[in-house]
Structure formats: structure tokens, C-alpha cells
Design a protein that fits this description.
This protein has 10 helices and 2 strands. By secondary structure, the protein is mainly α. The longest helix has 18 residues, at 172-189. It starts with 22 loop residues before the first helix and ends in a 13-residue tail after the last strand.
């Protein structure tokens, strides 16, 4: 039994991380208007169906926490607990700790790309077109980053970025780098007894891994780990666990 397992404070298993409060970013994530179609499609499916694939859970959990927004896993846990139908309270907490690299998984520098990860498995963006019909006519070349489409392409697709669909709320390359740096500082301040954080190498090796993945725009390791939380009824969610992709 671990007291306070479902929260950061007073939880002996959970790293104490200086997450930031940003209600505007939290609301954009929850409501599927971050400006990243892969993230927004997943959160739209969650609101409409009460379910999404476990790797989709990985993506949005990483994006909210250590990947881009640096918002506490506890806030994401609350949203999943409210909306997911296949959830269990304590599995939800465990999986959010895992995906935020607060416990169980320590390679915080392996970050899911909100652009490259979905594109790897669905290059034409069929999933995005289904859940974000405003983007249904966007060419596949731009479906994962429509803000890069020339204005004329946006007009032909019937979707002007900044008007019909939001611009990204953060720059992923910049935000991810900042998150990795803050996670590194938090890890140094919260080293386990003996000083071994089991995080997979020196700081230089971590940065090299992150940069290598960034250049590829895809996976810096296999995306794996735990399956989505089981159980039925409205009691917690599974962000799932595992490795990740790096920045685009």
C-alpha cells in the first residue's frame, strides 16, 4: 500500500516535479483545440466516444505533461477519470505517473511527437479527417501540420488556420526542448537514495538521443509498454506507458 498513490504530494513513489499551471493550455488540450490535429482528434474522440487507443492515450498524456505543456499529470488524470469509460482510479493514476515520467518510467527525454507519431501509422490522416471534419479536405502533405500549408491551399481546403482551425498553442520543437531541460533539473533535484535515477544514461547521452530522434521526426525507440487500463465502469483511465517518439 502506497499512501497518496493517486497524487504527487506525499507519494513516495512519485517524483516531485515543478509542473506549471496554465488553465488556458489545459482547456485547449481538454477541448481538442491545441492546433495539433493529431492531439485534437484524439481528445475529440475521447469526448465523443469515451475511449481511444492506448497509443493515442500515450500521445496526449505526454503532450500535456513532459512533452509540450508541462502541466501536472494530476490534471490529465482528472480529465481521463471524467471522460473514459474503461477506467480504474488507481490504474489511471499509475499510468499518468508513467507517461509523465514521474514514476515507473524514467526516460523523460523520449518524447512523442504530436506530428510525426500519428503520421507514421496514418500518413493520409484518415483518423484526423474523421474526428476533425474541418480538416477533411486538407492535403495529406499538410494534414498533421496545417499551419504550414500555403494560404491558397488552405482556401481550397476550406480551412483557414487561425480562423477555422486554431494555430498551435506552442512550438513543439521549442516547448519540448524546454520540457526536457526542466525534467532534467527536476530529476537532479529528486535523485533516489544512492543517486541512481535509472534514466538511461548521462545527460549528454540523453540529449544526443533526443536530438537524433528529432532529426528523424519519428520514433527514437519502440513505442511500447503497458496496455490501456482495463476494467469497466467510470473509475480511472489508462494513459498507458512506454517509450516514445522524439521531436519532429
Amino acid at each position: 500500500h502506497t499512501p497518496n498513490f493517486d497524487r504527487m504530494a506525499g507519494n513516495a513513489l512519485c517524483r516531485q516535479i515543478d509542473w506549471q499551471d496554465n488553465e488556458e493550455h489545459l482547456a485547449a488540450w481538454r477541448e481538442g483545440r491545441t492546433g495539433f490535429p493529431w492531439i485534437d482528434a484524439i481528445m475529440t474522440q475521447l469526448r465523443q466516444w469515451g475511449w481511444m487507443h492506448h497509443l493515442a492515450r500515450h500521445s496526449v498524456a505526454c503532450f500535456l505533461t513532459r512533452g509540450d505543456l508541462y502541466i501536472s499529470w494530476e490534471r490529465g488524470k482528472e480529465v481521463f477519470e471524467e471522460l473514459l469509460i474503461d477506467q480504474d482510479h488507481y490504474l489511471n493514476a499509475a499510468n499518468w505517473m508513467w507517461l509523465s515520467a514521474s514514476a515507473f518510467f524514467n526516460q523523460y527525454f523520449r518524447v512523442y511527437s504530436p506530428i510525426g507519431f500519428g503520421r507514421k501509422y496514418d500518413p493520409d490522416g484518415k483518423y484526423i479527417r474523421k474526428f476533425l471534419p474541418v480538416l477533411k479536405d486538407m492535403p495529406s502533405k499538410y494534414i498533421y501540420e496545417p499551419w504550414t500549408a500555403p494560404l491558397e491551399v488552405q482556401r481550397r481546403a476550406g480551412c483557414i488556420i487561425g480562423k477555422d482551425y486554431p494555430r498551435p498553442i506552442v512550438d513543439h520543437a521549442t516547448a519540448s526542448k524546454a520540457c526536457i531541460a526542466r525534467m532534467g533539473a527536476a530529476y537532479k533535484a529528486n535523485r533516489p537514495v544512492g543517486g541512481d535515477d535509472n534514466s538511461g544514461g548521462s545527460d549528454e547521452e540523453k540529449e544526443a538521443t533526443a536530438q537524433a530522434g528529432s532529426k528523424r521526426g519519428g520514433s527514437s525507440s519502440k513505442a511500447g509498454g503497458a496496455k490501456p487500463a482495463g476494467g469497466r465502469g467510470r473509475k480511472g483511465a489508462g494513459a498507458g506507458a512506454g517509450a516514445a517518439t522524439s521531436k519532429k
